[in-house]
Amino acid sequence: MTSSTSADCTYDSRSDFEDPIFNGKFDLYVDCPGSGSLIAVVAVEPADQSYAIMIIGQAITDADLDALDHVLDTFNLVGPLPQ
After folding, report:
1. How far is it, in rounded angstroms, from Cα 81 to Cα 40?
2. Residue of 82, 65, 71 lying closest to 22 (CA atoms)
3. Whether the Cβ atoms of residue 2 and residue 8 lie closer than 8 Å to each other
4. Phi/psi of residue 66, nearest 5 degrees
């Protein structure tokens, strides 16, 4: 990511995030300084609410958007959480 943060960008929207394992929210920030990029902030948890995952991605190009879509379509927790 570049030095932009969500505070430097324009808040666009909040959406629900759902897949077969996780539920949560998806915030989108646009018009980030320097490149007009966007930042996506996704916070999710499984149905039993035993842990939470946050994913933050910045997209500058269409290829970055494709990569972010792939991450959101395929992420998962593998293995036990540390005690």
Report:
1. 25
2. 71
3. no
4. -60, -40
